[in-house]
Amino acid sequence: MVKAEKITKMREIIKEWKSKGLTIGFVPTMGCLHEGHMSLVERAARENNRVVVSIFVNPIQFGPNEDYEKYPRSLSSDLEKCCSAGVHAVFCPNVNEMYPDKSLAFVNVESLDENLCGKTRPNHFRGVCTVVAKLFNIISPDRAYFGQKDAQQLAIVSKMTSDLNFDIEIISCPILREKDGLALSSRNSYLSSDERAAAVVIYSALESAKALLKRGERSAGNVKAAMKTEIEKQPLAAVDYVEVVDAKTLSPVEKITGTVLVAAAVYIGKTRLIDNFIFCLDEGGKQ
Ligand code: PAF
């Protein structure tokens, strides 16, 4: 496995692979790799001749009062995990390599960032899109793999990719969960043991919402109210948002028809965690 810290080195490797006609699968990450990331890597390995993982904690997607400084970093164990998983190259630049001087060019996807996480994290998706576009330009993969846990990120990156004509297939991968249902996330490592036990409330609230929808509830207001009530019963939890949005436009809906994304962001203590599921109805309103 090659470890590339410099853009020039990464480009040389890519050039060599491309000259041999090899296909490239790319898994962008901020490190602290868990089973969720590794499931993306496994899929990329099945579908491509070469796999590149990037590990870069991207400063421009964090707000001024967010966790950039304390975001968990574990490069040496991440490299070991990548090596055992058969990754061919890890691109792990430092901040100066990615942003050598003050950037003036940013990539912004309009409207899709107005709700959900975009509401409470202004400029977050601009930071994500800018770094993903830079990584796409450096690695020029055939396919890039993103987790459904970050549903809004996935929708925004997909739109950026098609609007800017990147010749890259965006692959959406399912959410991986702990045994009790908590979605895997690098930020779970912030939780104390009490908080870890409390965090399951996010999954149980989503499961209650799913059960309501399966029983025929079609009012987004009622679904959101039920989720909120359930989360608020847990003293260590505070709702940032619970939302039901159109899965394509990410705009809130009142009446549930077609395909919706039911999403939640919840503070467990000081740690903000997100989770979601997609619910589909056919044209006749059947599940
Ligand atoms: O999902 C993440 O870990 C990050 O947002 C990404 C896509 C690697 C961009 O920094």
Question: What ligands can be seen in this structure?
Answer: pantoate
Report, as a whole number of angstroms, the end-to-end distance: 45 Å
Order of helices and strands: EHEHEHEHHHEHEHHHEEE
Give the second-level CATH assignment, the architecture of the largest domain.
3-Layer(aba) Sandwich
Strand arrangement in the largest pleated sheet: 1-4-3-2-5-6
By CATH reckoning, the class of the largest domain would read Alpha Beta
Structural class of the secondary structure composition? alpha/beta
Radius of gyration: 19 Å
Mean pLDDT: 97
CATH level-four homologous superfamily name of the largest domain: HUPs
Largest sheet entry = 6 strands, parallel
Count of runs of 4 or more consecutive helical residues = 10
CATH topology of the largest domain: Rossmann fold
pLDDT below 50 for ≥5 consecutive residues: which ranges? none
Name the helicity range: 25-40%
- Beta content comes to 15-25%
Q: Which of globular, elongated, flat, extended, rod-shaped describes the shape?
A: globular
